[in-house]
Amino acid sequence: MKTRSGGHDFEGLSYTSYTNQPFVIVDIFNLRSIHIGMEHETAWVQSSATLGELYYRIADKSNTHAFPAGICPTVGVGGHFSGGGYGGGGVSFGVVLSYKIKLVRVPPVVTVVNIKRVKNLSYIAHRWLQVADKLYDKLFLRMMFRVVNNGERTIQAEFPSLYLGNSTNLVTLFKKDFPELGLEKSEFIEMSWIESVLYDGSFPIGTPTTALLNRKPQYLIPLKIKSDYVKTLISQQNFELIFEKMKELENQQLHFNPYGGQMSEISEFSKPFPHRSGNTAKVQYVVIWEELGVEAEIRYLNFTRVMYDYMTPFVSKNPREAFLNYRDLDIGVNSHGKNACAEGMVYGHKYFRKSNYKRLTMVKSRVDPENFFRNEQSIPPCSSNDESLFVAHSVI
Fold first, then answer.
1. Dihedral (C-alpha) 31, 36, 41, 42: value to the nearest 10 degrees?
2. Are the C-beta atoms of residues 246 and 311 closer than 8 Å to each other?
3. What do you get for the CA distance between the two ends of the chain, in Å?
4. Global pTM?
5. pLDDT value of position 184
6. Which CATH number fits domain 2-105: 1.10.3720.10, 3.40.50.10860, 3.30.465.10, 3.90.1150.10?
7. What does the alpha-carbon distance between residue 343 and residue 374 come to, in Å, rounded to a whole number?
8. N or C: which end of the chain has fewer CB within 10 A?
9. H/E stretch holding 226
């Protein structure tokens, strides 16, 4: 059984079978109601509402409340909360129809910046890894690199940021902790939090907030996503090598999201999502193409796999970790046969780490022992006969 809520699905697992098994689709697209309860600063949201719809409904009630989630407004809340929202559900245990969420307070004015740089990128990138996860906890500063071709291939960097405060304080903060970016106050823009959602989603300034109610993505093009975690500093020299490798390939993008803040304050064992303390940043590999056909698809998929392999020395190891909602079938697929528990370890340890994966299989064994809710990367039930697998894996 496949469950589809109508948002994003990078590998199409909600409507495609890669193991050629027959399936039915439970389409909950129309379960999208949102009820805001300002008296308790909470909301009930059904799983097929989009993040954009949720953001809009909250802002309609209050300009000083929000909910922290993804930057893309057409992502469905069901998949985001359970997997990509740092929760870790992954459609393994059932179908969730609605969630109760806690709203957070935000200032009436926030500051956004989208800094673009083309010089000294290896030095700035090296410095970003030193400071991004340690900056003031009201500042979210991403780092993105892409290959552009203006006669020759070069690297362009962007540093999108959101600060929960006014621009005067932000100028002081950057000059103190990250002067290498060379920011000027003229590069900062003050707006409401809901307007910052549109800005982060690449809408032009002045776009009405009703645009968040559009469930159709702005762009519908082929792409491949992969992920990694950075735990140790990447040197300036190695960033130079990374940029050269990007230029060898086509359409490469590397997006770095900083961790730290409250991410580091929650134990990796308290929730299924384990990638918290000890991670400097999450890396998203993005390759986008416009050509149609199998040959183009194979070529561009190979590009991102080559880039991913090249990054091996610079990212987490034993296991090389991955982000569940940047779903990536390259790191393992489960046929759900007699070796399901062992097959699940291949991707399960990367998404959840060893101890959390084992605990999740125990839950699965109790609530869905027949493995009714499954997909190519779901949590399988593991029996007492599989205990030796966990012991052997821990020794290795």
1. -20
2. no
3. 35
4. 0.93
5. 83
6. 3.30.465.10
7. 13
8. C
9. strand 223-230
